[in-house]
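Protocol step 4 of 6: structure prediction from sequence.
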Amino acid sequence: MKRKVLAVILSAAMMAGLSACGSAQAAENESGEKTYTIGISQFAEHGSLDNCREGFIEGLKEEGFEEGKNLEIKENNADADPGTASQIAQSFVSDGVDLICAIATPSAQAAYNAAMDTDIPVVYTAVTNPQTAELADEDGNPVGAVTGTSDLLPVEEQLKMIREILPDAKTIGILYTTSEANSAASIEQYEEFAPEYGFELETAGVTNTSEVSLAASDLLGRVDCLTNLTDNTVVSALPTVLDQANEKGIPVFGSEIEQVKLGCLAAEGIDYVSLGKETGKMAAKVLKGEANAEEMQVETIEGSNLYINEKAAENLGITIPGDMLTEAVETYTEISES
């Protein structure tokens, strides 16, 4: 990958060394050590994406890149607005950062589009389906200087878990954002596997958070339970969904640990801190010059963890099978405030 070098080139040998380095804009600190600037673009503020961000920073630190020593981090949140995500990406490009970390699909797409004609690599995380998002080809290879990690949902494990907890349930509802490629891909999986576990599927699409309340009210009148995706718009309004569902005595299943803490009954989900760490390690390889983003295949964390909120179960009058409580990685006896 071509790199822009802002330091003065003293010799041909030094130039070769800088070309091997993974950073375009690396400067030097007072001790002469190279320093790097990373822009983190997070699409929305909620638990799973926050965990990705913290994990990303931890992963970088484990690989020798620490804020305040040899790393400067610029963070911006789009508040679930695709237009804002594009502005953030463009500002990072204008600032000439060494690398952009994009958290969630809309931010990843915006970052890739903004950096496409530059030398700035993009490393993303929490992108459920990079192929559908047009960030990778069918084989998982990057379409350009953009790579990262996928938070592909363990749909079959989730359906199996719901069936064990609700043996008589017939219909599952899903709220989703019509413009999120992640959500469309996840719903296709649910449509494929739901019949195998004896479920019918009902969906309701929204375009922004202001529509979630009305859509949830309509959907709750047609289902036995809801299962939540990693849909950023819906997750941002999850307390509203939970309030309405609790009033009707309808359980809501989450897709990761933070949703269960907020009051979802249970979830089969991945560890988003671990996902972020893996992403940070990928970014470190790029900065070190050990790999180019365009040569790194998308990575997916294998397996899932069971999380259960016993307080939510008590409030709904639902008994969780004892073996599931034993198998759960985490159980909660209270509901966190949003």
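Step 5 (inspection) to follow. The domain at 12-151+272-300 is CATH 3.40.50.2300 (Rossmann fold).
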